[in-house]
Amino acid sequence: MTSFSPRIRVGKRKENRPMSTIAIEAVNLHKRFGNVSAVNGVSFNVTEGEIFGFLGPNGAGKTTTIRILTGILRPDSGEAKIMGYDVHKDPVKARMLIGVVPEEANPYPDLSAWDNLTLVGSLYGLSKRTASERASRLLKLLDLYEVRERKARSLSKGMRQKLLVAMALIGEPKVLFLDEPTSGLDVLSAKKIRSLILDLKKNGVTVLLTTHNVEEAGELCDRIAIINGGQIVETGSPDDLMIKSGLYTYISVKFDRPINPEDAGQFFKAWEHRVQGSRILLICKESADPIVRVVEYAKARCLSIIDIHTSPPNMEDVFVKIIGG
Fold it and tell me: Across-strand partners of 53?
């Protein structure tokens, strides 16, 4: 896959940009719709070059928060900043630095894939030549070059989704908001988008990612914030969240002959366990030490290990545990 190397050119605005290593800043954001508190005191920072996951169940406040951060909605109170620029006090400066792939959006249906891209390029102030060069590169990168003359309405859902990603990238943003970017994509296309996100990180682009694919978030994100009921309930790296969740690893071991439950119980008394015939199941917080003890147990009793299988908690388990599901 060709690497995408973002090059941000925003003229003299760059010279006046506030000095900051914080790319996205949400400070005590509040937003109500009638009697419903959609966002209730949301605060977090995303550093430059970080992939930051923003996860939560439906109706948790994710989309409302993103709309505030991208300047679509004005908060009732609180601050939203992009690279030091207040989104609502300096909207033009902030928006020139971001690209957005909304969850529910479509390209202009009566324009071709090519014209959609070059139109967005013109809105970023790109010359016709620069817009054409970037459009060509992005369409090839996302396997859309062969359909560049087709109208967007005739493209498949997956193709339209990839075109939206290209439209978000043509301005070569410093900060990219991706709301369900792999939704509706086949396995290979989703893999390409994930690889692209990692390439963007290598080139210093900050990515805020929302997805219902919790395992995808665990694979891509440096840190994850989990929002529920309009409030951040936990923040940390995927490993940190795994530890905070307090979930267990299951280790199943089968020996070449039945073992004595009382003897095994004494040997493995440090962990909760179950013995049935030639198999033992250990329930523990981590797997390294118990596995060492399993090998010691087998050697001391001249047993052969037929198979050993570990089942650590996954990010979906962690997510469900943290939001109280």
Answer: 209, 224
pLDDT beyond 70 at 11: no
Residue with tokens 């951040």: 232
Label the pairing between strands 305-311 and 249-255.
Answer: antiparallel
**Apex CA 91: angle with CA 88 and CA 97, to 5°?**
125
- The pair phi, psi for residue 144, each rounded to 5°, is -120, 0
| Residue type at 245 in one-letter notation | S
Pairwise CA distance, residues 99 & 217, whole Å = 19
Does the domain at 244-322 match CATH 3.30.70? Answer given as: yes
Task: Give the span between the Cα atoms of 288 and 39, in whole angstroms.
Answer: 41
Q: Which CATH code fits 18-237?
A: 3.40.50.300
Spatial CA neighbour of 145 closest among 322, 2, 315: 2
* pTM over the 0.70 mark: yes
Are 292 and 299 within 8 A, CB to CB?
A: no
> From the DSSP assignment, how many helices (H) and strands (E) are in the chain?
11, 14
